[in-house]
Write a structure and sequence with these properties.
There is one protein chain. The chain has 7 helices and no strands. It has 149 residues and is mostly helical. α3 runs parallel beside α5 and α5 packs antiparallel against α6.
C-alpha cells in the first residue's frame, strides 16, 4: 500500500485523540486547590477549635492528609479523582500517600515481605532517594555560600 505523506498525516490526525490541555489544566487547578483548601481548613480547625499551636496543627494536618490519601486510594476513589484532576492530585502530600499506598494494595497478595514490604516504595522510593540527595546537595551549597559571604 503506497500512500503519500499528506495522506499519512491526515490519517494520523484523524486517529490521534484531541488535545484536552485546557480542560486538564482547569481540573488540576481546581482539585489541587481544593486539596490545599481542605488542608488549610484542617489547620485552622486544629489551631482554633482544638487549641493546638500552629506547629502542631500543621503537623496534624499533614498526618490527616496522608491518611485521607491512603484511605481514598484503598477505596479506589483517588484514581477516579486523578482521572479528572491529573497532576492536581500529584503535587499535594496526598499524591505521595497515593504513591505509597497503591503498590502496597496491589502487591499485598504476594505476601507481607516480598509483596507489600518490597513493593510499597516502588513508585515513591526514587522520589525519596533523589529528594534526600537533592536537599543534602542544596544544604551543602547553602552552607558554602554562607561561609564565603
Amino acid at each position: 500500500m503506497n500512500i503519500t505523506q499528506e495522506e499519512y498525516s491526515s490519517m494520523v490526525k484523524n486517529a490521534s485523540p484531541k488535545s484536552t490541555v485546557f480542560k486538564d489544566c482547569v481540573g488540576a487547578f481546581l482539585v489541587g486547590g481544593l486539596i490545599c483548601t481542605v488542608g488549610q481548613a484542617l489547620t485552622d480547625t486544629y489551631q482554633y477549635a482544638v487549641g493546638l499551636d500552629i506547629k502542631d496543627a500543621r503537623c496534624l494536618t499533614s498526618v490527616t492528609l496522608v491518611f485521607l490519601g491512603a484511605l481514598f486510594t484503598a477505596f479506589s476513589w483517588y484514581d477516579n479523582i486523578a482521572k479528572f484532576a491529573g497532576a492536581g492530585t500529584i503535587v499535594p502530600i496526598t499524591g505521595f500517600s497515593n504513591a505509597v499506598a497503591s503498590p502496597a494494595i496491589e502487591f499485598k497478595s504476594e505476601g507481607l515481605v516480598m509483596g507489600l514490604g518490597a513493593k510499597m516504595f516502588i513508585i515513591a522510593g526514587p522520589v525519596i532517594v533523589y529528594g534526600t540527595i537533592t536537599s543534602a546537595v542544596y544544604g551543602l551549597i547553602l552552607c558554602m555560600v554562607k561561609f564565603w559571604l
